[in-house]
Design a protein that fits this description.
Elements (H helix, E strand, L loop, with lengths): L1 H6 L18 H10 L3 H27 L13 H4 L7 H13 L7 H19 L6 H21 L8 H28 L5 H38 L2 H20 L8 H20 L15 E2 H26 L4 H15 L3 H11 L12 H26 L3 H9 L4 H16 L1 H14 L9 E2 H8 L10 H31 L6
Parallel strand pairs: 1-2
Helix pairs in contact: 5-19, 6-7, 8-9, 10-11, 12-13, 12-15, 12-18, 13-15, 14-15, 15-17, 15-18, 16-17, 18-20
């Protein structure tokens, strides 16, 4: 019985072959699974292909196929002279290339710009490669030493007027300005009538307080002023300034690090650093007037674009971190100030900030003290970008669980240690895309500095259009295509590198 039952379920013929599985790898698999897997995707694919055909093909034809590659003036880029349809006029770019890079920087001194670019690349590339050692020394050279060297390379001049002498002069002007402001407040309070007696008394009291502040500043800087006079009488103020500064800074570092109990390393490091500074001063001749001065009004092109963007990016980060921490502070005064600052600077356009920094900031400076026009624009851009960075960083701070602060407190860590070693590194890792997005936006917004008489890359491009020797129908499109490629190269590079950093820092989260 069991044999009959078992034989009833035994298959006597072969099972039919199954169809081959659908290919999901390679080009065919990609087309089948991504582009043509549904009627909607098929329609979108066809429309996208048509758009690319009608956009990319004419662009490639204009930039490469029909382009003019050689010529001495506009005649080479005219259709009637070329005997065919004319695309991009690349001889125009060749003729104006130095203007796009250097602006009106004197040609004999352009080696200084090239050297600055080279030093920036040498110091920046090791920072971007994670496996290379000595990141601390490299970062110190790039963020601290390089800006000073770049300033004297690009601007020229010596160290006369800097150091103790410059500080004493600035503080003296500040004390005089404060005293004058207090006197003006007192006079305004005295001029008010009896109907506003309370307001008048308040103004007179405030004016008296400001005057006393100016007097206090004057007495505080008296020793510094005496030291300035002695330095000027020495005949070699640069080296005397450097020696005095080195002694003051080294002693302060030695004392703040616990004196002999912590060893002599801080003192030796500080003295070695100032010895390196002295070597650079001697090599560049800064004690003898330095290089010829090139006014910032002659700077332009890619030089100004990089100076403004890099300075804005680097300077806005500490401003943003400070404001983000201040907005989360438990101290009401700091929190209100940070919130007001952020909302005020985010509530006005960058054009307004540039106009204010260029034309109104000098009105608030002490008497006899002036700031270069490019420096004023840099200050305005750094503060403006810092307000946006603050909100991005604050978003990262809010993503950190509160338990980490409590655990750090339980371990006995101070607020500074908790913030610097635990909270802030994680917060910055969370907001890398937002920070880089702000950096890219700032890099492109540098084109707005042309409204305050700073000719960046786009400013020089627009200035070159006025040259009648290159006035052709294709010159305008060629120039904007060239600058667009430059902007795209920098922005795309920042975007790709940020993606690399984000993947590297979040490697522990991948399965």
């Amino acid at each position: 019985m069991s044999d009959i039952t078992a034989s009833a379920f035994v298959r006597q013929d072969l099972v039919p072959e199954r169809a081959a599985p659908v290919k999901t790898t390679g080009l065919v698999g990609f087309l089948r699974t991504r582009l043509f897997n549904s009627p909607t995707n098929i329609l979108i694919t066809i429309v996208s292909a048509l758009l690319l055909w009608f956009v990319l093909v004419p662009t490639i034809k204009f930039l490469l196929i029909d382009a003019v590659w050689s010529g001495k003036d506009r005649t080479a880029c005219l259709a009637e002279n070329a005997g065919r349809s004319v695309g991009a006029c690349w001889p125009f770019i060749q003729a104006k290339f130095s203007q796009f890079i250097y602006g009106f920087y004197p040609e004999p001194e352009r080696w200084r710009v090239n050297l600055t670019f080279l030093l920036a690349a040498i110091l920046l590339l090791p920072l971007l490669i994670p496996r290379l050692p000595a990141k601390g020394i490299n970062a110190g050279l790039f963020f601290l030493a390089f800006p000073a060297v770049a300033f004297f390379l690009l601007h020229g001049g010596g160290l006369q007027g800097f150091g103790v002498s410059w500080t004493a002069g600035l503080l003296s002007g500040l004390a005089s300005s404060v005293a004058e402001a207090g006197s003006a407040l007192s006079r305004a309070g005295a001029s008010l009538g009896e109907s506003t007696a309370i307001a008048g008394s308040l103004l007179k009291w405030l004016g008296w307080l400001v005057v006393q502040l100016g007097v206090a500043l004057h007495y505080l800087i008296t020793p510094l002023t005496w030291l300035r006079e002695q330095i000027q009488m020495s005949g070699r103020p640069v080296w005397t300034d450097l020696a005095v500064t080195a002694a003051i800074v080294s002693i302060l570092l030695f004392w703040l690090n616990g004196g002999t109990r912590a060893g002599w390393r801080p003192l030796i490091t500080s003295l070695a650093t100032f010895a390196g500074i002295g070597t650079i001063i001697a090599m560049m001749g800064l004690d003898r007037g330095g290089l010829p001065v090139v006014d910032t009004r002659l700077w332009g092109g890619l030089l100004v674009t990089l100076v403004v963007s890099v300075t804005g990016i680097v300077a806005s980060m500490p401003v943003g971190i400070a404001l983000a921490l201040g907005r989360r502070s438990s101290i009401p005064l700091i929190r209100v100030f940070s919130t007001t600052f952020i909302e005020l600077w985010r509530g006005v356009p960058l054009i307004t900030v540039l106009f204010f920094a260029t034309y109104m900031l000098p009105l608030f400076l002490p008497t006899g003290f002036s700031v270069d026009g490019l420096m004023r624009a840099l200050i305005g851009i750094a503060l403006f970008a810092g307000a946006y960075q603050a909100e991005v960083i604050r978003g990262g701070l809010q993503a950190i669980p509160r338990g980490q602060d409590e655990a750090a407190s339980a371990l006995g860590l101070s607020w500074w240690q908790t913030t610097g070693l635990i909270v802030m590194p994680q917060a910055l890792r969370h907001v890398i895309p937002g920070l880089v997005n702000s950096f890219i936006a700032l890099f492109k917004d540098t084109s707005l500095v042309s409204i305050v008489a700073l000719f960046d890359l786009l400013g020089q491009l627009r200035a070159s259009f006025s040259d009648p020797a290159w006035a052709t129908p294709s010159t305008l499109f060629t120039g904007f295509a060239f600058t667009g490629l430059i902007y795209f190269t920098f922005c795309f590079g920042m975007s790709r590198y940020s993606l690399f950093v984000e993947n590297r820092l979040n490697a522990h989260r991948r399965n």
